[in-house]
Amino acid sequence: MGENRIKRAPEERAVRQQIRDGAIRLASRLDKSEPLDRVEIERHARSILAELDQPETYLGWAMVAVGSAFWRDQVARIPYHRRLLLLPHCLRNAEKCPAEYNELGLICQDCGACELSELRAYAQQKGYRVLIAEGSPIVMQIIIEGHADSLLGVSCLNVLEKSLEKIIAAGIPSMAVPLLAATCRNSRTDLDWVREMIDTPYLPAPVQTRTHMHLLRCAARMFDPEELDRLVPRSRGGPSIAEGNGQGLASIEPIASTEALAHDFLARGGKHARPFVTLAAYDAMTGGSGTRADGARHVTRLPDAVKRVALAIEVFHKASLVHDDIEDDDLFRYGQPTLHREYGTSTAINVGDYLIGLGYRLVAGQQEDLGANVVADILARLAEAHTKLCEGQGAELAWRDATDKSLTPLDALKIYALKTAPAFEAALYAGLRLVGPAEKYHRPTAQYTRHLGVAFQILNDLDDWQSSRTNKRIDGTDVLGRRPTLLWALAIANLDADGRRQLQTLAGKKGPGLICRDGPKGASQKLNLVPFSSATIREVRRLYQRGGVYQEAAELVAKHHQRAREVADRIQPAELKHLLHYLADSMLQR
């Protein structure tokens, strides 16, 4: 559903009904033991449209119908109080609505003046948790934190793609009713179908479709403060920063301050993708019990040695983030001030170094449970990934400081292959090696993670221009930080001589700096090391558009995504292949 031309809702109710009925008939014949991936959903949707002689324009709508029909029986097995209903703010009466927003979305006043208020009240009477917001990371966060086990949504097709696709790929029971148009104000939908969806009866039975939800939750819960302290006991003791009665480091003995800062940073947030990869690979190679009906019980019995190795992968990642934030002078990380902005550069460097040592100590300390050979092999792969990451970062810094800002797309992709792919490869290798010899997987997993890592980094480049407010809160931070990106390289390659000259001039242009007015507690902060003005960012955006950079980058993501899936198709056992498909589909979804 990557293009607007395939995201139109059929105007006639009769046509929508035909497609919906076709999806229900098709779903009744499908095997429910494995979740449908995006490719399969699209294939089924196309077959329904062909059978009904309907245009490709309705593909996105048909895909939602197929996914909802497939998951209906699984949603029915989830109690009402464990279901999350996602409603769009655009169903409200925009002229009369008195509600305001917070970080979770619209705070409905239950005034009864619109369908939104009525649907919310109707669902809450049954026990639903209701969120009025666009699809956002908060939806996945609510599910991973254990507050809900299924998602039911009403939204436009663009937002459903963002919020539902990743959740469906994880095997989380989900249903949706699309809006009839993406008007963003006073929208319409098939309200009777929404109520019917909310009314999906609770029929107690185990959920039979394989899901990664339990392993995702296990990876995230390792970083809850209490579980983190259990898996990584504090050698220096003392309170955490959060327990310091608002005094911060002042309440902690100096010799324990580095450990306290490190633990605090580890618990701050993140997607925890890398430890999930390790846990899920281990699970796949031991029968895949963590993805089955009793997966919640199974993951509680995962050995602590396995959890500590998985945790170590994230510790290395967090160390690299601390150092990256210093090198790029970023203001925010996980919605909070970066460590060097909050505690000073010297302290932040020291915390990053401490985290590197902590990661190696975590793996090395599992020798008694895992055996010396396993620990040595994992440490060797982690060290290799660490040095490649530093080489990629070094190349990036060398380019940033060079006078000549020329960069070929191939050079950019080489940097990405060094910076991003090795961490995923090490995480995957660790999970495989924890089970047994993994040498036969070396070549295919290296190919797979290279495609995955490169595409993942290109997506980060694209997201940098999409006003993402989760982390750094400013558009164009890669340009602001003078980082070499594929977008820049494509622009240099695609623009004419005049355009290239303009771009090169902008790269060396000095400006008044940038004021960020979205800092903690409403504070404004000067980006002292950022020599660009907002006008410069607008001009770079214009040149990128002129060079067709965004479209070409998106096509490269699609190409690497497809190649990653092709590599996965040749890998056994089936549980591992399914995991690799899931990783590609979920991590590379825009």
What would you note in describing this structure?
It is a single chain. The chain is mainly alpha-helical. The protein has three domains: 4-198, no CATH class; 212-370, Farnesyl Diphosphate Synthase; 400-590, Farnesyl Diphosphate Synthase (Orthogonal Bundle), CATH 1.10.600. Helix content is 57%, strand content 6%. The strands form four sheets. It has a four-stranded parallel sheet with strand order 4-1-5-6, with helices on both faces. Strands 2-3 form a two-stranded antiparallel sheet. α1 packs across α2 (38-52), α13 (304-328) runs antiparallel to α15 (345-364) and α17 (372-401) packs antiparallel against α18 (409-419). The radius of gyration is 25 Å and the shape is globular. Residues 468-473 and 510-531 have low confidence and may be disordered.
Structure summary:
Helices cover about 55% and strands about 5% of the residues.
Write the layout of secondary structure elements.
Layout: H1 13-27, H2 38-52, H3 59-76, E1 83-87, E2 100-102, E3 105-107, H4 115-126, E4 129-132, H5 137-144, E5 150-155, H6 157-169, E6 174-178, H7 191-198, H8 213-221, H9 225-231, H10 254-266, H11 273-285, H12 295-299, H13 304-328, E7 332-333, E8 336-337, H14 339-343, H15 345-364, H16 367-370, H17 372-401, H18 409-419, H19 421-433, H20 442-463, H21 477-480, H22 486-494, H23 497-507, E9 515-516, E10 525-526, H24 534-546, H25 549-569, H26 574-587
Parallel strand pairs: 1-4, 1-5, 5-6
Antiparallel strand pairs: 2-3, 7-8, 9-10
Helix pairs in contact: 1-2, 1-3, 2-3, 4-7, 6-26, 8-11, 10-15, 11-13, 11-19, 11-26, 13-15, 13-17, 13-19, 17-18, 17-19, 18-20, 18-22, 19-20, 20-25, 22-25, 23-24, 25-26
